[in-house]
Design a protein that fits this description.
Elements: H1 9-29, E1 33-34, H2 35-42, H3 46-59, E2 62-64, E3 80-83, E4 89-95, E5 99-106, E6 111-118, H4 125-142, E7 150-157, E8 160-161, E9 167-168, H5 180-184, E10 191-196, H6 197-208, E11 217-221, E12 227-232, E13 235-237, H7 255-260, H8 274-283, H9 287-311, E14 315-319, H10 329-337, E15 346-349, H11 356-372
Parallel strand pairs: 4-7, 7-10, 11-14, 14-15
Antiparallel strand pairs: 1-3, 2-3, 4-5, 5-6, 8-9, 11-12, 12-13
Length: about 375
């Protein structure tokens, strides 16, 4: 009786799919690369990489990169290929009580379009949902994109989001128990991920902000609303039910008193919010504004100290409405934390501005795309030049 050794057909198919994903993700992380560099970085043989590169190019995932004009060695140039980041797009959304931010990004994370507008503070929950859906449709139309051109959408909301995607919000109470992703799915066929806004802020800081080199991070939203996003060992920590870092829920921490301490009747410029005006005045050295900020941080410090004692983070990032204060924010908070904690962690102030949450939503959406590559249908192949 003959005995056949070796790998069965379905095992070979699975292995080929795995190798394809490895090559594609390597190019997505770093482009362009030569075939030799790809073989080295993936650990695959050069012949295997050559075959996979041809297949991925035929499917529209990758394309040949232009050879460098200078410094090229004599002889036949090495083939350089790149991931076609323009083959698809993701959208990052930040919708809160008073603002809406939309970012459109390519598959490499490059933001190619943005939209921001202020929302009426008294808008109902239903009105906010309707406005978001309408703005998303118009935003994509303005970029000449259809629903099928968006591969994933990340949405940041002010409130706890459970594993089913349902919201619990004290900022927009009508959104409690709302499945926002399901509502948006009526317009978009891609995956939609709804997440707490401060959780997305810490993702953005770890991706492109103050926490790029830190893995244990607490990102604190400072302003009239105080909340926190946590990262432990480089991974977002949501807690069992998505409620990790919701400091403002506990009245004993006194954070409502901190919010009231921000009341300030200083002069505003046209179109300037109260927090922006306060931040500008602090930067300009206004003694009254500095006193307001100091009283606010004194009242917020016990809650932040409790967080520091519980987590012992490597880095504390200050984000939110008061981040435009800039450099003075860290030393002032340090003085109030020092008597309350065993030690004060390194403090950094976010420089991502008003797009921090939306940028984190882009990162969240890209992570969903990464997990699906290359199992989704191949993108449209690039048109040949005329």
């Amino acid at each position: 009786m003959a005995v056949h050794h070796g790998v069965r057909g379905h095992d070979l198919t699975a292995l080929r799919g795995l190798n394809t994903a490895v090559v594609l993700r390597a190019l997505r992380r770093e482009s362009p690369q030569t075939v030799s560099a790809l073989a080295t970085s993936t650990g695959l043989s050069r012949p295997t990489v050559e075959v996979l590169v041809e297949e991925l190019a035929a499917q529209g995932w990758i394309a040949d990169a232009d050879a460098p004009a200078a410094g090229r060695a004599p002889g036949r140039p090495a083939r350089r290929v790149r991931f076609r980041a323009e083959a698809g797009h993701v959208v990052g959304v930040d919708i809160g009580r008073e603002k809406l931010v939309l970012l459109l990004a390519r598959l490499d994370g490059e933001v190619v379009a943005r939209h921001r507008e202020e929302l009426p503070a008294r808008s109902t929950g239903a009105e906010r949902v309707a406005l978001l859906r309408g703005r998303l449709r118009r935003f994509l139309t303005d970029q000449r994109l259809g629903p099928d051109d968006v591969w994933s959408v990340g949405v940041g909301v002010p409130g706890m989001v459970d594993d089913t995607g349902r919201i619990v919000s004290v900022v927009v109470p009508e959104w409690t128990d709302l499945d926002l992703g399901r509502r948006l799915a009526e317009d978009l066929s891609c995956r939609i991920l709804v997440e707490n806004d401060v959780n997305l802020a810490v993702l953005a800081e770890h991706w492109r902000g103050a926490a790029v080199l830190a893995d244990d991070v607490a990102c604190v939203l400072v302003g009239r609303r105080i909340s926190c996003g946590l990262m432990i060992d480089g991974r977002l920590h949501r807690g069992r039910r998505g409620g990790a870092g919701e400091l403002g829920i506990l009245p004993q921490l006194g954070l409502e008193a901190a919010a009231r301490a921000l009341d300030w009747d200083g002069q505003r410029r046209a179109g300037e919010s109260g927090s922006d005006a306060l931040a500008r005045a602090v930067r300009d050295g206004d003694a009254e504004a500095l006193g307001v900020l100091d009283r606010y941080l004194a009242k917020a410090a016990p809650g932040i100290a409790a967080l520091v004692l519980a987590l012992d983070p490597e880095l504390l990032v200050l984000s939110g409405a008061l981040a435009p204060v800039g450099a003075p924010l860290g030393p002032l908070l340090t003085e109030h934390l020092r008597p309350l904690t065993l030690h004060v962690p390194r403090i950094a102030v976010s420089t991502l501005g008003r797009e921090g949450v939306a940028l984190g939503a882009v990162r969240h959406a890209l992570d969903a795309v990464e997990a699906a590559l290359p199992h989704r249908p191949a993108p449209a192949r690039p048109r040949a030049p005329h």
